[in-house]
């Protein structure tokens, strides 16, 4: 066998490492786990901040998160905001605590049990409720776990920051779209302008 | 194919495969509609009651929304629900006043424990094999009902047994009423460290068959015989609160603590003076001190020295307890005895306490009566008192004798609730053999342990935080305290609260049982028991029963207004004279006294399944996840045992092995082991770990009460291996430690 | 005046019960290492109780000493961090910024108190134990250093609440998890700059000393000497 040169050697090394890693980290533990299972009356599985797969880790690292994910219901912010619904009607808690609640199906049905009940999307919502299921909304705004950032909505609302300042103009959106990239630079810019603390521990702890 | 093509393709596909990871086919779990309205990120604080020990501290439970994997109607999914995130003490609660001990903090892990039994299960394999399979609640309850009905119909109602850990409050009442109406004997309350001796002594000395309350913040001098009152004994949080005040809470005044022990405990570490006394001779020492006080007339003999009259020779000045004789028996010098007598008498605000190992001898009652007598001589300010009771159910008292009866005459059917005698009762009680003779066993516990694994059917209870809980404080407060809490969180699994299951079974049985338990739900029974308290002066001042019930639920219970403590009055009985403690095993063959002690992490072993407690470094040794035996360094030298070596400890009953820890806090003729490890079957965190010192205890009992004399076993020691076999895990030692420098500014 | 967070540890009140240790684990999402990792020295106890034995039987003596991050004014862990993950906040805390940390572990090396703990592996919780995790506190992933933060999440929550109510923070309005649970009130937390606060009063006690103060770290934790019988009142 001729000696491999240059990029071929490098590639072979990468391949060898990848295979070894795959066997050691993935295949062997799986076999071990299958060997002795726990009794069915106990809870199984492990929670860990580790990413579920290398692909997920890579996506997180290079910040690949869909800006306008497809939602299970073709919700339209435009229509609801035009009817005068305030943001906080559905997104309860935004002025009290860190999170803005994504509303549950009960909130939707509180109106739609009688409004527009013939529309196909509304029928879908009713069907979810009838099945006892929540609508599986896909998150649009979130922080990566590795950012270890603790964003708190309430002080922003109390300071008079409009929802649209970070979430862009939703009167023009059907399902939510992440039109503004909420990276740290965006936060720091506004904090600097408004002369609010940019100390690291304000958000990262 | 060209070689380079082959390499290119393999490399590419390899990289792609790796990047994909072996992504498991994750089912998209459906999300159920939440059963409660919660705003995410905002905490609600709810009252609770800690059930981990008998102190009954009040809790505040921090509940926040989170998403849990659950099974609803047989389907797996996710649900947003209130989750208990943190426990704190309830600042309004008279016993713990906003504070909480390590075990109380850790009890939160019982709710979300991975090995909790999540639905009813029925035994499929042989008894004790741990082989169970799921059964629906309907089928399970039908089965139990049928058994109960058949037993009653065949005239064998008196052959139903109920074995439970002691329950104060209405849960115990419910069990008692159920059994009485059914025609069965009363419940067997079992707990390994049951304090029956102290309660009996207090009945004789003070007229109260209860654990005492200590207002240490009023004291200037505390002499404590054996009780680990800052650790695990009696009401540790209440005692620690008043201890803190006694030390630094009163400017210009700092009380002295003298601890008399055979082994340095966590409490002993805090003493100003630590006195080593021979095991079982604590009563003699107390009377030696009393002798000096009486002989030198250091304290006026108040009429309240009736407790003294329970000691033979008290009126004559305790002639048998002259300091020289006491020195010979106890090992404490004459000079120290005299000095302690002077200090105690001069202080005036003194208290003498006893608990723990001194009572766990064959002469335990004598030791208790002796210290009580000394206490009445030196405590002029009622630093020792008794918590007023709410009036109805008295706290239940566990005894070993009841367990013996269960073993001697096994019932036809046994109901089991959170008692684990297979683990904690001495082997001579033969509980495992007794269980094998019982045709049908039903357990209500949440976990498989050595005892519940013997069950034929398990009907898992809710966790405490998911249940209506109430408890009556036996000690720890000068007010009567009836704690109460509604469920803080919704049930996570397919479990049902044991009291409601009993009420349901009662309804099924009909007749006397249904009549005796007329409540549809357990909280209805609780309400009926609580509302009569409304008219007593106390923490809730409202006009209607409904308002009272609402307020009690919000506050975490009801407690009485401050009032005078119940009076202390000794009971007439024949005076007791000193008896030497008896030990199992001849000194020649078994040269060491053996002291199993209640562990700071695991109490009596019932908390060994909580990972926070397994990883909690023992405060005196820093050991984690381990069993160990404390040996005096001279003994270690003599027997060639080094720190960390594996040692075999053998009594007449059996042997265990554990890592050696060399400790200056124990006498050369004694060894001590913490209780709690050595479970063969108790969740993934405790199973197969360490050794159980209770498994080698001799069945010696206190001569009058029949309580287990757990400090009366003698053992022999031999080195059985090195540190690699013992696997002692210590937190300290891996880093250099700097002791605190004493520099005053 | 800006807050300056500090703590007083009264060694005469501390009983060694370790309620603080478990309370801290519960509040701060500290993972349990398990027997094997604990045997490798990787158990994380942000606050620990040390014990010092003196003397032999029958006169042994033990002293307990709770040790936690001293939040030093001249913290040795700060200058050695190449990414400023360990830095000093305007309120006097030594803050660990997890997302900046690249895991060099120089800070743990420099700390003379041994209060810094490294995540050598991704922590795992057997489900459903993770349901107990505190949403106000980060779950640290592998490669990140962690240590006591003086329950910064509680500090932030109290400051935000006070700002919302347009008032000053009151002493005793909130405290750290360890101090809250301590039955004998051995741990007192508060604002050293608030002259009326309990912690400021106790920090100036003549029983006060600093742990390893001679190293010049200027800790913000003051230890109050344990008493002796001679300190007690004689009858």
Could you walk me through the main structural features you see in this protein, from its secondary elements to its overall organization?
The complex is a heterotrimer of chains A (205), B (745) and C (235). With 205 residues, chain A is mostly helical. Chain A has 9 helices and 1 strand, in the order αβαααααααα. In chain A, helix 5 (105-112) packs across helix 6. The mean pLDDT of chain A is 89. In chain B, a hairpin with a 2-residue loop joins strand 3 and strand 4 (75-89). Chain B has 4 domains: 30-111, Phosphorylase Kinase, domain 1 (2-Layer Sandwich), CATH 3.30.200; 121-192 and 392-559, Rossmann fold, CATH 3.40.50; 196-385, Dimethylsulfoxide Reductase, domain 2, CATH 3.40.228.10; 592-730, Beta Barrel (Barwin-like endoglucanases), CATH 2.40.40.20. A 7-stranded mixed beta sheet of chain B has the order 6-5-17-16-15-7-8. In chain B, strands 21-26-23-25-24-27 form a 6-stranded mixed beta barrel. A 4-stranded mixed beta sheet of chain B has the order 1-4-3-2. With 235 residues, chain C is of the alpha+beta class. In chain C, 19% of the residues lie in helices and 18% in strands. Chain C is globular, with a radius of gyration of 18 Å. Classes of the chains: A mainly alpha (205), B alpha/beta (745), C alpha+beta (235). Chains B and C meet through strand 3, strand 4, helix 2, helix 3 and helix 7 of B and helix 1, helix 2, strand 2, strand 3 and helix 5 of C. Strand 1 of chain A pairs antiparallel with strand 7 of chain C.
The residue-averaged pLDDT of chain A reads 89
Estimated share of beta-strand residues of chain A: under 5%
Structural class of chain A: mainly alpha
Q: Secondary-structure element sequence of chain A?
A: HEHHHHHHHH
Please give the share of residues in helix of chain C.
10-25%
How much helicity do the residues of chain A have? 40-55%
Task: Give the strand content of chain C.
Answer: 15-25%
What is the molecular shape of chain A? Answer: extended
Task: State Rg of chain C.
Answer: 18 Å
Report the count of strand segments of chain C.
11
Order of helices and strands of chain C: EHHEEEEHEEEHHEHEE
Number of domains of chain C: 1
Head-to-tail CA distance between termini of chain C: 46 Å
Low-confidence stretches of chain A: none
- The helix count of chain C comes to 6
Put simply, the count of helices of chain A is 9
């Amino acid at each position: 066998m001729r000696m491999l040169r240059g990029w071929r050697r490098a590639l072979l090394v990468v391949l060898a490492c990848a295979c070894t890693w795959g066997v050691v980290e993935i295949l062997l533990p799986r076999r071990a786990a299958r060997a002795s299972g726990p009794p069915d009356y106990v809870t199984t599985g492990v929670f860990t901040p580790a990413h579920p797969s290398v692909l997920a880790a890579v996506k997180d690292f290079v910040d690949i998160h869909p800006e306008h994910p497809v939602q299970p219901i073709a919700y339209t912010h435009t229509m609801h905001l035009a009817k005068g619904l305030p943001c906080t009607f559905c997104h309860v808690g935004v002025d009290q605590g860190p999170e803005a609640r994504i509303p549950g199906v009960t909130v939707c049905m509180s109106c739609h049990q009688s409004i527009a009940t013939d529309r196909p999307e509304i029928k879908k919502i009713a069907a979810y409720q009838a099945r006892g299921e929540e609508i599986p909304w896909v998150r649009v705004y979130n922080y990566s776990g590795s950012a270890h950032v603790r964003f708190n909505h309430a002080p922003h609302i109390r300071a008079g920051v409009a929802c649209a300042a970070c979430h862009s103009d939703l009167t023009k959106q059907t399902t939510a779209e992440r039109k503004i990239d909420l990276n740290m630079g965006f936060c720091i810019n506004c904090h600097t302008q408004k002369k609010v603390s940019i100390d690291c521990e304000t958000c990262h702890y | 194919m060209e070689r380079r093509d082959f390499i290119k393709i393999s490399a590419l596909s390899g990289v792609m495969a790796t990047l994909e990871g072996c992504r498991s086919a994750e089912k998209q779990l459906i999300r159920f509609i939440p059963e409660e309205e919660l705003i995410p990120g905002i905490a609600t604080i709810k009252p609770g009651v800690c059930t981990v020990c008998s102190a009954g501290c009040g809790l505040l439970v921090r509940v926040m929304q989170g998403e849990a994997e659950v099974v609803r109607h047989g389907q797996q999914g996710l649900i947003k629900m209130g989750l208990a995130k943190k426990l704190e003490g309830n600042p309004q609660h008279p016993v713990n006043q906003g504070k909480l001990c390590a075990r109380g903090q850790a009890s939160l892990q019982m709710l979300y424990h991975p090995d909790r039994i999540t639905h009813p299960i029925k035994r499929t394999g042989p008894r004790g094999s741990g082989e169970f399979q799921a059964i629906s609640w309907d089928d399970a309850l039908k089965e139990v009902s049928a058994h109960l009905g058949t037993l009653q119909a065949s005239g064998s109602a008196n052959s139903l047994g109920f074995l439970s850990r002691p329950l104060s409050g209405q849960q115990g009442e419910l069990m008692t009423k159920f059994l009485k109406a059914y025609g069965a004997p009363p419940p067997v309350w079992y707990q390994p460290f049951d304090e029956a001796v102290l309660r009996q002594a207090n009945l004789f000395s003070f007229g109260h068959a209860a654990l005492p309350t200590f207002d240490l913040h009023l004291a200037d001098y505390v002499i404590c015989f054996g009780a680990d009152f800052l650790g695990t004994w009696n009401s540790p949080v209440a005692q620690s609160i008043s201890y803190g005040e006694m030390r630094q809470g009163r400017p210009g005044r700092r009380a002295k603590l003298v601890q008399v022990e055979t082994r340095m405990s966590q409490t002993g570490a805090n003493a100003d003076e630590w006195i080593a006394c021979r095991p079982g001779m604590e009563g003699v020492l107390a009377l030696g001190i009393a002798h000096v006080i009486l002989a030198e007339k250091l304290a006026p003999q108040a009429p309240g020295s009736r407790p003294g009259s329970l000691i033979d020779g008290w009126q004559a000045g305790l002639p048998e307890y002259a300091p020289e004789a006491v020195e010979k028996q106890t090992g404490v010098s004459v000079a120290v005895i005299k000095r302690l007598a002077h200090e105690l008498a001069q202080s005036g605000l003194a208290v003498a306490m006893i608990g723990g190992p001194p009572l766990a001898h064959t002469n335990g009652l004598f030791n208790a009566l002796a210290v009580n007598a000394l206490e009445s001589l030196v405590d002029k300010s009622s630093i020792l008192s008794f918590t007023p009771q709410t009036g109805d159910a008295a706290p239940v008292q566990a005894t070993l004798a009841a367990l013996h009866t269960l073993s001697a005459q096994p019932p036809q059917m046994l109901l089991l609730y959170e008692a684990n005698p297979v683990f904690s009762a001495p082997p001579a009680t033969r509980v495992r053999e007794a269980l094998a003779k019982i045709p049908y066993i039903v357990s209500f516990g949440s976990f498989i342990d050595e005892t519940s694994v013997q069950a034929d059917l398990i009907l898992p209870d809710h966790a405490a935080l998911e249940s209506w809980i109430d408890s009556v404080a036996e000690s720890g407060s000068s007010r009567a305290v009836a704690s109460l809490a509604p469920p803080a969180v919704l049930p996570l699994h397919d479990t049902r609260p044991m009291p409601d299951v009993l009420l349901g079974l009662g309804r099924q049985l009909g007749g006397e049982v249904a009549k005796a338990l007329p409540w549809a739900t357990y909280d209805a029974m609780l309400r009926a028991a609580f509302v009569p308290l409304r008219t007593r002066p106390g923490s809730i001042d409202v006009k209607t029963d409904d308002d009272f019930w609402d307020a009690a639920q919000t506050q975490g219970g009801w407690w009485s207004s401050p009032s005078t403590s119940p009076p202390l009055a000794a009971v007439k009985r024949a005076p007791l004279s000193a008896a030497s403690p008896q030990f199992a095993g001849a000194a020649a063959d078994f040269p060491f006294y053996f002291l199993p002690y209640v562990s700071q992490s695991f109490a009596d072993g019932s908390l060994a399944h909580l990972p926070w407690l397994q990883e909690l470094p023992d405060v005196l040794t820093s050991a984690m996840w381990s069993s160990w035996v404390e040996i005096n360094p001279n003994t270690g030298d003599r027997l060639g045992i080094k720190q960390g070596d594996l040692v075999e400890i053998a009594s007449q009953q059996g042997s265990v092995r554990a890592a050696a820890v060399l400790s200056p806090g124990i006498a050369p003729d004694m060894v001590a082991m913490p209780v709690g490890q050595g479970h063969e079957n108790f969740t993934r965190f405790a199973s197969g770990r360490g050794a159980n010192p209770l498994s080698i205890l001799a069945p010696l009992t206190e001569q009058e009460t029949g309580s287990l004399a757990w400090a009366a076993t003698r053992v022999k020691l031999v080195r059985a291996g090195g540190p690699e076999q013992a696997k002692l895990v210590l937190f300290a030692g891996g880093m250099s430690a700097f002791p605190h420098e004493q520099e005053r500014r | 005046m800006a807050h300056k967070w500090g703590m007083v540890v009264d060694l005469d009140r501390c009983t060694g019960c370790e309620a603080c240790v478990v309370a801290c684990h519960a509040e701060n999402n500290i993972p349990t290492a398990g027997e094997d990792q604990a045997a490798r020295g990787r158990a994380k106890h942000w606050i620990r109780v040390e014990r010092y034995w003196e003397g032999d039987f029958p006169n042994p003596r033990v002293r307990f000493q709770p040790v936690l991050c001293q939040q030093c004014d001249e913290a040795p862990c700060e200058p050695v961090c190449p990414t400023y993950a360990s830095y000093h906040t305007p309120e006097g805390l030594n803050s660990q910024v997890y997302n900046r940390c690249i895991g060099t572990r120089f800070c743990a090396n420099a700390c003379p108190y041994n209060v810094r703990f490294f995540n050598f592996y991704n922590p795992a919780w057997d489900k459903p134990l993770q349901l107990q995790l505190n949403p106000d506190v980060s779950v640290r992933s592998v490669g990140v250093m962690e240590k006591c933060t003086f329950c910064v999440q509680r500090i932030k929550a109290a400051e935000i609440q006070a700002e919302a109510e347009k008032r000053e923070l009151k002493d005793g309005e909130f405290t750290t998890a360890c101090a809250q649970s301590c039955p004998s009130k051995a741990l007192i937390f508060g604002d050293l700059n608030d002259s009326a606060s309990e912690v400021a009063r106790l920090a100036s006690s003549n029983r006060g000393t600093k742990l390893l103060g001679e190293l010049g770290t200027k800790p913000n934790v003051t230890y109050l000497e344990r008493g002796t019988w001679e300190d007690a009142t004689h009858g």
